[in-house]
């Protein structure tokens, strides 16, 4: 029978799940925690030199302490453009521009803010779990089709289903672990 085909289906399912985990990690870097993170601003779009550019292409972004972000443009002529982009993005931060650097003080989050962020994060996290389950659904359909077409036996189909379920459990656990870690970071400040 065609064990090679089953392995291909498992590999494709796992690749989709890995991509979902990678996307989830990126998403988590954008979640407000009440701490200063350079990732909040790195991909901010700035209109500079007549084109849209990411902030990280125009400046050094540092966090000298837990509540401050310092943005130091390589060319001081774009400092106003950067400030305008931050205000336009409406992130709830007020940039302080001294002509050389932009300082942003991250205001402390209230208990209520933290709970709201966690609630929104839970909703968003569920969409990543659904993506994992969708990868399973797609893989199971392919396996069932292979069984119907007599490419694989019923036993091979059942084994493949179990293998797919193990992948789902593995990657769902990764999402849950990352969520728990981020939740602790948000609630324990």
Number of helices: 5
Question: Low-confidence parts lasting 5 or more residues at pLDDT below 50?
Answer: none
Q: What portion of the residues fall into strands of 2 or more residues?
A: 5-15%
Alpha-carbon distance between the termini? 57 Å
Helix content: 55-70%
CATH topology of the largest domain: Topoisomerase I, Chain A, domain 4
Structural class: alpha+beta
Query: What spatial form do the alpha-carbon principal axes imply?
Result: elongated
CATH architecture classification name of the largest domain: Orthogonal Bundle
Question: Whole-number radius of gyration?
Answer: 23 Å
Q: Give the integer mean of the pLDDT values.
A: 89
For the record, what is the CATH homologous superfamily label of the largest domain?
A: Ribosome-recycling factor
Explain what you see.
The chain has 189 residues and is of the alpha+beta class. It has two domains: 3-30 and 110-187, Topoisomerase I, Chain A, domain 4 (Orthogonal Bundle); 39-105, Gyrase A, domain 2 (2-Layer Sandwich), CATH 3.30.1360.40. Helices cover 60% and strands 14% of the residues. The protein is built from five helices and six strands, in the order ααββββαββαα. The chain has helices at residues 3-29, 39-42, 79-89, 111-148, 154-187, and strands at 45-48, 51-54, 59-65, 68-73, 96-97, 102-105. Strands 3-4-6-5 form a four-stranded antiparallel beta sheet, with helices on one face. Helix 1 runs antiparallel to helix 4 (111-148), helix 1 packs parallel to helix 5 (154-187) and helix 4 (111-148) runs antiparallel to helix 5 (154-187). The relative contact order is 0.17.
